[in-house]
Amino acid sequence: MTRLRPRVRVAVLFLGFLHGVTASRCAGRACSPAVGNLASGRTLHTQTSCCSNSSLMADDPFLHPGTWWESGAAAAGEDEIRLDLEDRFCLTHVVMVFRSPRPAAMTLERSWDFGRTWEMLKAFAENCSSAFGLPDDVSQQEALCTSRYSRSIPCTGGEVIFRSISQGRRMDDPYSPEALSILTLTNLRIRLLRPHRCPAAPLSSSRGQRNTPHQAPNPRFSPRASRRSPHNSTHTDSSPYAIFSLLARGTCLCHGHAEQCLPQGGQGRLQSGGVQVHGRCVCTHHTAGVHCETCAPLYNDRPWRAGNGSSGEPNPCQKCECHGHAQSCHFSQRVWSSTGGTSGGVCDRCQHYTAGRRCQRCRPGYRRSPARPLDSPQACTRCWCDPVGSVPVRTDGEAAWCHPRSGQCHCKPGVGGTSCSHCLPGHWGFGLDGCRPCACPLTCDSATGHCLQSETNREFYDIPLGGKIPDLTHFHPHEENTSWSNELSISALYYTGKCSCKERKVKSVSDLCRIKHSYVIKARVLSAQDKGTHAVVQVKVRKVLRSGLKLLSQGTHSLYPLSWTSRGCTCPVLNP
Ligand SMILES: *C1O[C@H](CO)[C@@H](O)[C@H](O)[C@H]1NC(C)=O
Ligand SMILES: *[C@@H]1O[C@H](CO)[C@@H](O)[C@H](O)[C@H]1NC(C)=O
Ligand SMILES: *[C@@H]1O[C@H](CO)[C@@H](O)[C@H](O)[C@H]1NC(C)=O
Ligand SMILES: *[C@@H]1O[C@H](CO)[C@@H](O)[C@H](O)[C@H]1NC(C)=O
Ligand SMILES: *[C@@H]1O[C@H](CO)[C@@H](O)[C@H](O)[C@H]1NC(C)=O
């Protein structure tokens, strides 16, 4: 036990080191899962089998160097080894070590579509033109057939090697579409078409032939007195093919976005020490899918891209800004072009009564809660509109409409307040028809409409309808101020017989300036309205001849001229 201790510690340290490295391999970079033997842990289908299990081909040649698979006696001398993968993988190369002499003719094929169609990756024959009618890559580079691995010697331990990306070919980016078209597969098939006989001796004594002078066999695979074989059989004519090891090196297909893969459909963590290359990527860079081939649900602000294997750029997916109100978003080409290619994400199913591409607005019937930040679940609260004072919404009588930002409801005439719950100043009689204007010079009781006698300290400009130029009302009339009864001080609009508005033409500007007005302006009257207690005159100011305390600029303004004189008449008519 004590002798083992140091070794254990080393192993633990090594694992810790590995873990530290892998934790950051995808950080800010394109990354790839470890390469392994795709055949490990999977069933290799063969047509015949004489006396050994086909999985013995794919076991670790270092741990089990003396194990092999042996074909049965096939009528036509043909056999086939098929590896069915449960998904798409990348294959980088295939290395086979034969116990028998290598086949005189064999092919290596792949399928992308789970075995429906097959494509030849490479043909192997001693004479390519006679066996397959193909040129030989010994004489013609990149040819589909090769004669390099089909000689009958060595009688055992001979290798057959295939590289997906041949050495002459430049492939900078393994995640590029052209690289993937070369590397990916769902099935691998090795067709053993014609066996060789060992030329120097009968096959049954092949063990003695292993150190032929022509080509040294791989010493790792020299059978050692069949110490592991359950059958102490030697190689016979009845098994034309025997293979020590089949290495199909590859990785799971993750487009540069993962460094680990898990079993398909399996949950949980990778079993440590597992030799099998699994197919489900553990995606990083905010990607998702078995092959990290899409963006994660909330990361579709840009189109998905594979990592760049040559520059190392990870090309991660970008998060959509949904202010915490959506679980997913989708990419919209239209939005992408309208933003000039900066953002194309549209949030899906905005929650918490929000709406909009980024869940940035409140839904109809809800208003922004000013005290809450936009990403709060309580950012939007239901509108509350007084059913009496607000204009009813026709749509299915749900929430009464209010402005999604201010919460202002649609009020009936004369009604004011955010929720339309009371009469505007100068109005009375809150009810289903709204409020009526007071028939008074100043204001009236909002319930009864009775005029209130508060003209002395009541200032008309204290009115919330804009009130841009309150200075205008600091005007003390020079006319004689006889006191008028309340009855008399009533709008000319309602009691036209009691008073009338006089129109006076101003002869010249200098005349007008001589009169003590706060403002003298040249303006066009756009509208004039008697609001009961006050008048609102919309003017377009063209020229300011004299200005009051508050500066008046050119443009459109609402004025509140002193509409009520001591005579009690509203005459919201300005001189030109
Ligand atoms: C106008 O009335 C005020 C009080 O309301 C009074 O102080 C002032 O003397 C009066 N002016 C004239 C000209 O009668
Ligand atoms: C081959 O070996 C594998 C693993 O050792 C085993 O699961 C499988 O059942 C064997 N197959 C046969 C036909 O013996
Ligand atoms: C291959 O076979 C063809 C015809 O079968 C023959 O003409 C050619 O010489 C052979 N090539 C070699 C290298 O043996
Ligand atoms: C091989 O098998 C035969 C019988 O089938 C047995 O007598 C012999 O000892 C075996 N040889 C070895 C090396 O196991
Ligand atoms: C990957 O990066 C290289 C070098 O920066 C660049 O030339 C190439 O276009 C990139 N590939 C893709 C698919 O963007």
From TrEMBL:
<dbReference type="GO" id="GO:0007411">
    <property type="term" value="P:axon guidance"/>
</dbReference>
<dbReference type="GO" id="GO:0043256">
    <property type="term" value="C:laminin complex"/>
</dbReference>
<keyword id="KW-0424">Laminin EGF-like domain</keyword>
<keyword id="KW-0325">Glycoprotein</keyword>
<keyword id="KW-0964">Secreted</keyword>
<dbReference type="Pfam" id="PF00055">
    <property type="entry name" value="Laminin_N"/>
</dbReference>
<dbReference type="Pfam" id="PF01759">
    <property type="entry name" value="NTR"/>
</dbReference>
<feature type="disulfide bond">
    <location>
        <begin position="350"/>
        <end position="359"/>
    </location>
</feature>
<feature type="domain" description="Laminin EGF-like">
    <location>
        <begin position="383"/>
        <end position="437"/>
    </location>
</feature>
<dbReference type="GO" id="GO:0016477">
    <property type="term" value="P:cell migration"/>
</dbReference>
<protein>
    <submittedName>
        <fullName>Netrin-4-like</fullName>
    </submittedName>
</protein>
<dbReference type="InterPro" id="IPR008993">
    <property type="entry name" value="TIMP-like_OB-fold"/>
</dbReference>
<dbReference type="InterPro" id="IPR050440">
    <property type="entry name" value="Laminin/Netrin_ECM"/>
</dbReference>
<feature type="disulfide bond">
    <location>
        <begin position="411"/>
        <end position="420"/>
    </location>
</feature>
<feature type="signal peptide">
    <location>
        <begin position="1"/>
        <end position="23"/>
    </location>
</feature>
<keyword id="KW-0732">Signal</keyword>
<feature type="compositionally biased region" description="Polar residues">
    <location>
        <begin position="203"/>
        <end position="215"/>
    </location>
</feature>
<dbReference type="InterPro" id="IPR002049">
    <property type="entry name" value="LE_dom"/>
</dbReference>
<dbReference type="Pfam" id="PF00053">
    <property type="entry name" value="EGF_laminin"/>
</dbReference>
<dbReference type="InterPro" id="IPR008211">
    <property type="entry name" value="Laminin_N"/>
</dbReference>
<feature type="domain" description="Laminin N-terminal">
    <location>
        <begin position="1"/>
        <end position="251"/>
    </location>
</feature>
<dbReference type="InterPro" id="IPR001134">
    <property type="entry name" value="Netrin_domain"/>
</dbReference>
<keyword id="KW-1015">Disulfide bond</keyword>
<feature type="domain" description="Laminin EGF-like">
    <location>
        <begin position="320"/>
        <end position="382"/>
    </location>
</feature>
<dbReference type="GO" id="GO:0034446">
    <property type="term" value="P:substrate adhesion-dependent cell spreading"/>
</dbReference>
<feature type="domain" description="NTR">
    <location>
        <begin position="499"/>
        <end position="576"/>
    </location>
</feature>
<dbReference type="GO" id="GO:0070831">
    <property type="term" value="P:basement membrane assembly"/>
</dbReference>
<feature type="region of interest" description="Disordered">
    <location>
        <begin position="201"/>
        <end position="238"/>
    </location>
</feature>
<dbReference type="GO" id="GO:0005576">
    <property type="term" value="C:extracellular region"/>
</dbReference>
<dbReference type="InterPro" id="IPR018933">
    <property type="entry name" value="Netrin_module_non-TIMP"/>
</dbReference>
<dbReference type="GO" id="GO:0009887">
    <property type="term" value="P:animal organ morphogenesis"/>
</dbReference>
<dbReference type="GO" id="GO:0009888">
    <property type="term" value="P:tissue development"/>
</dbReference>
